[in-house]
Design a protein that fits this description.
- With 321 residues, the protein is an alpha/beta fold.
- It has one domain: TIM Barrel (Alpha-Beta Barrel), CATH 3.20.20.100.
- 40% of the residues lie in helices and 13% in strands.
- It contains 11 helices and 10 strands.
- The strands form 2 sheets. It has an 8-stranded parallel β-barrel, surrounded by 4 helices.
- Helix 1 links the parallel strand 3 and strand 4.
- The mean pLDDT is 94.
Length: 321
Amino acid sequence: MHYRRLGRSGLKVSELGLGAWITFGNQVDEKRASEIIHAAYEQGVNYFDNADAYANGAAETVMGKAIQDLPREALVISSKVFWPTMPGPNGRGLSRKHITESIHASLKRLQVDYVDLYFCHRFDPDTPVEEVVRTMDDLVHQGKILYWGTSEWEASQIVQALAIARQYGLIPPTMEQPQYNMFHRERFENQLLPLAREFGIGFTTWSPLYYGILTGKYNDGIPEGSRASMSEMGWIRDQITPERIEKVRQLTAIANEVGATTAQLALAWILHRKEVSSVITGATRIEQLDENLGAAEVTDKLTDNILDAIEKILYTQLKEA
């Protein structure tokens, strides 16, 4: 496993992380989740991503139980705040009240004294950015979080937070967590990458396999037990279009050429961008985890010719979800 700095910070995260979205508290039980977390740790993964909204808090509870016998100082644990998790009009968003109550609830579920990374899960138009920055600054000084960042914020919104932090001598955001993959790339490459170069923002990207479509498992329909087969995941089924499936089939041919699976090729394609600090992967089985982590060995096989061939396949602009 290779480790990359989180932007210009001194923190090092595994270039492939393990996320809890959809899987923990939903698709897999506590026993299997613990097995997956331990297997990831044994293979060098130190970054474990979560959020208070995942499975209504159950994902944090599952992860909290699983990490109890792992050395806390060796782990980089993240959580997020924004989505409704509590009753009443203040039970969502990025107000000082909701952030403060949410971090306390997350720490309790995760059974830790602090989280390494804390993300604002979306931008909150109802809360002044200064209030958000000051609240995060307070949490860092209180030792409840070590670094804070954003997720799915526009570049202009991140710049606003950076400017406020600089103006008042507050701790600025260190990282952004955007969606980035072969089928969803324009926003990241055109708007967010300049933030890494100018301000040193690090990126922990999510949905590297575009909801599983880039694994090729949907090429011949929707398998039973897959995310797309879940009743509440109709929005994933909407993304499984004939055009995308045809592109995945062509990508599979390239993957075979370099001795990789389609999923490994898609992950390695992201890893070849050094601005990406960590790619968050998900897994419901140990075998799936092993396959994903094997992508690190594929990165060196992405020659200029291979990258050009991939670009030719992806060249036709796809409507981003």
